[in-house]
Amino acid sequence: MFEKEYAAVAKVIDLLLEEQAYTAGIDLRVDQRAQELAKTLRRHGRRALGDEEFDRLMAAFVAFASVRGRGNEQARENFLARVEDAWASSTRRNATDILMMLRATRPQAETLHDDTGHPMLELLVSSVAQAARRWGGQLGPVSVLADEQTALTDDGLENITKVVRNGWGATPSSRQRPVDLRALVRGTSMNHPSIQLADLLAGAVRVSYEHQAGTKLSEAGEDLWPAVVPLLDGASAAPGP
């Protein structure tokens, strides 16, 4: 399970700031710098910009970085304009500093659209690959059952399987070791109770996170939080102490 807004913010860092830094000989994966940038923008961006401006920024990035937006000059320029507006209106220094860095990523944004082999924003695909890596690292040989989604085509599943089995990562510190993935298949909640359970757990995590982050307080979020904490990955957007 993954938090979509944090995943989108992390992709902003991954596809633009990391590429910019790597060109300059800097590896943002060292000391989890990229992860901390993503967490900071996710936690403080909405307060720094307000709900409407932050939502517009995220929507512009999704439109720019999705497969459908590939090569769309208008989508690219709209995203860069939103970054500029967000930087000018930000009221929190930690968010402003990251937006300042993003303002200088036009070359990376242009390359991203020109390079047909560059990974784009497909959060579901990324989440399946990361889930396989996470559990494969803990359990050894692993099989994955994914919920049936339009993004998970036969070709998509085949590509995920190849990447997970071969390992991936652009820099030495971000390189992920291969996983012994025995099978990756689709299923539906009607036929697999485990998918129903995963949906319930995802809902519990969302409610708990919103409560802890202060974006949507609830008694359910407070009660569920102690049970949810052990399920969270160390790279999650969960609020720290």
Computed Rg: 18 Å
Helical element count? 10
Give me the count of strands: 2
In this structure, how is the largest beta sheet organized? 2 strands, parallel
Query: Could you list the spans in which at least 5 consecutive residues all have pLDDT below 50?
Result: none
What proportion of the residues form beta strands (DSSP E)?
Answer: 5-15%
H-E string: HHHHHHHEHEHH
Label the overall shape. Answer: globular
Structural class category: mainly alpha
Distance between the termini: 22 Å
In which order are the strands of the major sheet placed? 1-2
Number of domains: 3
Helix proportion? 55-70%
pLDDT averaged residue by residue? 82
Quick gist of this model?
The chain has 241 residues and is mainly alpha-helical.
Question: What is the topological layout?
Answer:
Elements: H1 4-23, H2 33-49, H3 51-65, H4 73-89, H5 93-102, H6 106-114, H7 123-139, E1 142-147, H8 154-166, E2 181-187, H9 193-213, H10 219-228
Parallel strand pairs: 1-2
Helix pairs in contact: 1-2, 1-6, 2-3, 2-5, 3-4, 4-5, 7-8, 9-10
Question: Could you characterize the architecture of this molecule?
Answer:
It is a single chain. The chain is mostly helical. The protein folds into 3 domains: 4-114; 123-187, no CATH class; 194-231, no CATH class. The chain is built from 10 helices and 2 strands; from the N terminus they run αααααααβαβαα. The longest helix is centred in the C-terminal third of the chain and has 21 residues, at 193-213. The radius of gyration is 18 Å and the shape is globular. It starts with a helix and ends in a 13-residue tail after the last helix.
